[in-house]
Amino acid sequence: MRLELEIVHTKDIQFSDRTEIVDGELRINRGELQELLERDIRFSKVDIARARPGESCRIVQVHDVIEPRAKTGGSGEDFPGALGKQRMAGQGSTRVLRGAAVVLSDCNKKGLYPTREPNGEIIDMIGPAAEQGTYGKTYNLVLMPRPADRVNPMDYRVALKIAGLKAAADLAGANLDSAPDEVEVYELPSVNDPAKGPEHLPRVVYIFQMLSMQWEPIPGEPVLYGTNIEGLVPTILHPNEVLDGAVLNSYRSICMETYVIQNHPMIKALYRQHGKEIHFAGTIITTAHNNPPEFERTANMAANLAKWVLSADGAILTKAGGGAPEVTLSQTAKRCEELGIKTTIALVPMTADVRDPQSEASIIFNMPELNAIVSMGNPSVAPLELPAVGKVVGRAVPMPNGSPISDAHIRRSASIKGILCQMGSSKFKAVRY
Amino acid sequence: MQKKSLRIVHYLNQFFGGVGGEDKAHIEPQVIGGALGPGIAVQNVLGEQGKVVATVICGDNTFAEKIEETSEKVLELIRPFQPDAVIAGPAFGAGRYGIACGAVCKAVQERFSIPTATGMNKENPGIDLFRQYTYIVKTPKTGIGMAGAVSKMVSIVTRLAAGQRVGKPSEEGYFSRGLMTNEVSAQTGAERAVAMLLNKLKGKPFDSEISLPQYDRVKPAPRIQDMGSATVALITDGGLVPTGNPDKIESVGATRFGAYSIEGVDGLHSDDFEVYHIGYDPIFVHEDPNRLVPVDVLRDMEKEGIIGKLHNKFYSTSGAVCIVENIRRIGQAIAEELKAEGVSCAVLTST
Asked: Which one of B130, B136, B194 makes the best mutation probe of the A interface by having the most chain A beta carbons within 10 Å?
């Protein structure tokens, strides 16, 4: 399967009377886009703002971030199954506005959950959060759709995601006839055609946990080709499908935005080593479960696919959600090791056993064979000191201490979008001294 | 730029201080000028970087019997020398000496805000008492490890005194202090994962970035012989609280718990309760709180005589991303309260 990403580097974002990209400047007809998004009867109104790197600006209630993408040359549908029709993703060519992002800011009055911080997750365009994170460096178009009367919160969340996809496809599709700045090619041979692969190299698979069932799946939420993957059992996906819009972030996932899935750092890292040090033999997608029959089923099926279908010598595993998904994750890795597949786990530990010097650990599993674990930063330590900002975008509410969210404050890294990442994009590493 | 010569005070017990053996373990803290015994080794490693200006010697029993009082006396002996750093021991496998070294380092660090280091064997009880307050370098059980321990201790305090950083426990050979932070690595997490897997596949050494946890084993209480006369309590870590969360139980990293009366009620009503917990979807509990804290069923069992009595309160905290010490403390407090109120057993419901 071969995918070409036609990269256009975005260097600015402006509102204009026409939506187009000129010399890297993304110009957007705000009224037109607003009109497009307001056709969704689940919204009463859609406000649109922009936020640029270096602006004294804080975006609040951030639910997801999406990279603008559009299929070109009739080679597929934009976000198939979720926005576009059911078509195969991962082949042909796709236009990418690199450096730009569509940010979804949740305007629901009250979420279903009392959270620790009423402003949710934020993005800062200046200061340490902008320097350390992903989305303080992108040219952001912020969508703030307000729910229509009597639209329930679950339906609103689905609508929010669809609005983001519409905007992402609309922006990237603006002038497809212009030449891209560069083209990235992602191509792997068929997994059952070893003659075409670097057969002398170890075969490595990526086991991608996409969703945790510790929260109820949202009805109608598009996660995989438009389905909410509630009943998903492990299956094989071509890595290109992940990169090309088949997979979207779920509302309740932690540290895994759609933007990062579209640029999946683990898949890209494996691609970079393909043919050099490894044979990248495919991606297995899974979910995390609450009860033994379910997580054991997932562990067994995923390990079997890795061993007996993809002939893996090695596997890398990542997780979704909080601490609970580590059960399915570790069981799956254990099954792989039992079948002779060497594993490495990469995770953002969520269980905060950070102050007990005797335990030295922040995970909830202990299996001696799982001896290769990458720590991608701990959300319970090293909070960031954020500066006061001049402008707030999104439905701001006072912080628990009563002061406005524009004030300088100290914030957990997990409450800032794009600092920590379950899929390996950040350079953070939790270290114990 | 000429570097300032560091002033170091060294702490020793009666044995290493050359006063005597177990018969002198009751001597009071005393100070002499300059280096002595292991202090000579300290001075040799220090070389031009500094000078051992004084040595404080104290009996092991004196210290172990009155830790705080003796620490104060030792501080007063150290104070006039205005040191830049203090080195204690190493204590190797000696338990009382280890506790003394740890206590001196802790007191000095807290009171004088200067760097300290000591050394112990992994079985020394002083490690778990003091590791979070000072640098304890790893040593063998006996004095054969003197040279290695001294050079590690000197290396750590001289760098700290110069404002330089100390590396990780595994690199520097000290017991982890339990201080966790997020550092920026040269590679992304994804790149490190691929590199680590490659090393594992090739049989090359690799460093896992997270150690596996060790958990306490809890011995279960003996089983209840007669449930018909037992008082049963309900406990949950599912974060169920009266609407408005009067005890302000945190939805993540809880430090508190609440005890809520169920006196005379046949079940919990959704209007009266809500969930503070970030780790699961509370919709079903919001619909019917008995699904999490089954007061309704326990009341039926009480009426049917299956259990003697339902305790008149239920206990609740939020078990999402909790710090082990906090949750251990909460558990102990709930257990003590139940014990004091004559509860015979408890049903714990989790989410």
From this structure: B194
Reported ipTM: the value is 0.95
**pLDDT digits over A43-85, tens only?**
999 999 999 999 999 999 999 999 999 999 999 999 999 999 9
Task: Confirm if A116 and B250 have CB atoms less than 8 A apart.
Answer: yes
A-B CB pairs within 8 A amount to: 232
Residue ranges of the domains in chain A?
2-183+383-414, 189-381
Beta-carbon separation of B176 and A372 below 8 A? no
Q: A110 pLDDT exceeds 80?
A: no
| Closest chain B C-alpha to A427 CA, distance in angstroms | 4
Q: Min CA distance, A103 vs chain B (Å)? A: 23
pLDDT band at B69 (very low <50, low <70, confident <90, very high): very high
Candidate from A352, A358, A377 with C-beta closest to B182:
A377
B176 residue type, one letter: S
Instruction: Tell me the mean pLDDT in the region A334-356.
Output: 85
User: A197 pLDDT band (50/70/90 cuts)?
Assistant: low
Point out the residue among B189, B252, B321 whose CB comes nearest to the CB of A374: B189
* Closest CB to A430 among B180, B323, B324: B180
- Tens of pLDDT, residues A281-323: 999 999 999 899 999 999 999 999 999 999 999 999 999 988 8
Q: Is the pLDDT of residue B1 over 50?
A: no
**Can you spell out the DSSP letters for A61-116?**
SEEEEE--EEEETTS--SSBTTTB-S---SSEEEEEEETEEEEEE---SS-SS--S
Torsion of CA B173, B175, B180, B186, to 10 degrees: 10
Q: For chain B, give the percent of residues with pLDDT over 90.
A: 79
CA atoms of B251 and A111, how far apart (whole Å):
14
Indicate the residue of A278, A347, A427 with minimum beta-carbon distance to B188: A427
How far is residue B258's CA from residue A204's CA, in Å, rounded to a whole number?
Answer: 49
Query: Can you list the domains of chain B with their CATH numbers?
Result: 6-172 (3.40.50.2300), 227-349 (no CATH)
A364/B198 CB distance under 8 A: no
